[in-house]
Amino acid sequence: MTQQKKIFVRTDRCVGCQSCTMACAVAHSRSKSLFGAVFETPRPKSRIYVEWVAPDNKVPLVCRHCEDAPCMHACISGAISKDENGVVKTDEDKCIGCWTCVMVCPFGVIGRHLETGKAYRCDQCPDRDIPACVDACPTDALVYETVDIYAGARRKYAADELVTGQEEPSS
Amino acid sequence: MTDTTYLIIGGSAAGMAAAHTIRQLDPDGALTVLSDEPEAPYFRPLIPLLVSGKKDAADMAMNGAGPYREAGISIHTGCRAEKVQLPERTVVLNNGHTIAFEKVLFATGSRPYIPPDLAGADAPGVFALRTLEDARNMTMRLEKTRHAVMLGGGLLNLKAAFALLEKGVKVTLAVRSPEILSQLMEPEDTGRIRSALDAAGLTVMTGLSVKGIVADSRGVTGVALNDGRELPCEMVCIGKGVRPNVEFLKGSGIQTDGGIVADIHTACNLADTFTAGDVAVTHDPMSGDRIMTALWTNAVEMGRCAGRNMADFPTAYTGTFGVLNATQVADEPFVSMGTVHVTESDLEVHRSRTDSAYRKIVFNQTGDRLIGALFSGDITNAGLYRYVIREKMPVSSFKQHLVDHTLHYGHLAMA
Known about the structure:
Distance between the termini of chain A: 34 Å
Strand order of the largest sheet of chain A: 1-8
Number of strands of chain B: 26
Largest interface: A-B, 35 and 40 residues
Radius of gyration of chain B: 22 Å
Number of helices of chain B: 9
Radius of gyration of chain A: 17 Å
Oligomer: heterodimer
Structural class of chain B: alpha/beta
Helix content of chain A: 25-40%
Structural class of chain A: alpha+beta
């Protein structure tokens, strides 16, 4: 089975520009344009969040599509399932807005849409080759890759650092 | 009915979660689920939505929804276990059949508690909303109902109350305690929810002592109070908690203590017997106390753990908080988890009220561990609080974020 790609976050490269959150909200709007999205009701929501940790770390947070997703098992209405690509999805028709998923997600990446009363989260942009957030990131802080390839690349960087004594450029 | 490798008694949250887990780990072992309800397994928490008309029974089916997608599970509805024979490993059913098994899971759940001294509880129009059948019967009574009285101020009754309100029924919540939701919060924590209930048109009467239900040949006509008053109504819904279904184990040698006693691996006291869900006595990892909970999410978690143990993948069950609930009543979301009853304790408690939210954050006596959290209005990132409580994380490096409700995963990742 071919391994599916996931969104990886490199906090050392994030500059906190919020390009990803903007691109995500637009990608999940009806109009698919920033100008149109701003005027839509219900308001399109970003499913990725960029948080800040002292002294000056920016931390993009997005659904990890957990192997054994706690939200999926906790859901009391059967609204959350995992598709054949390993993407954890919330079925809006089945969601009753009880927020049990919010209560059990240890990453805090499930949003509550107050206008629709439905939970929402990253869907890895099923209609795009590359998720909108990854596409929009100007510093490659977001990486869309398979676990094997991403982990291999990280190991190679670490080995290169050991050998040359030089850190990989952070941006 | 054929003999089976795995026998699951009970076809709701714990039983079905166990069945699907077993099927994933052991694709071939014969797997049989018995359910005493006439319907195929369904998401029980959704039944108030049948009353309100927002969902029909087909929308509630477990099979094929969420993580419940495994094939090869033999489900028998309308089957109740009457007697368990150990060490013979057989179960006698209500239809007279006997099934032999190698391993068994007792996941028989719980049933509504009807106070034995409550007169008139069997009159037409009196319900305890537990099953799809109850919900259907309640729906059929709707056209005769102008006013419904809900006895008990717990979450289930609140949800039922809202379903009835949506159908245009006048609803009174009659509560014996000084405040609603007393299992999930303290009186001072209910302010926002009470306002939301008032705004939604629900009448709440607290500190009430009910004498009995009054009925004539057509069914319930009112609720009599001990102070002499009577609340005229055409429907009564009893929500006074639940009791575990353990009677079928009489004479089996399985240890019970209220519910069925589970060890750390969800096993009962006799070989190859397991238990999970509402019927199981488990433990609270915070206090170590033996507890029983009646919560879908807990039942699924314990059922999955039992499934792994039955399929020979030994897995410890970490227990659950005595209080763990998220929901939304009217437009007010709230989450309550861990230790939230703090009156007359020496715990470190932080409360905050704003126009849009109320929260109560509870630390242990020494203030270095989070042990409870209650959010009303804004439940953002509640899952992180649960994680911090459950993992017993030292909180000193991010404590102010916990108190201020500014915590996000970045703080935990970099702690």
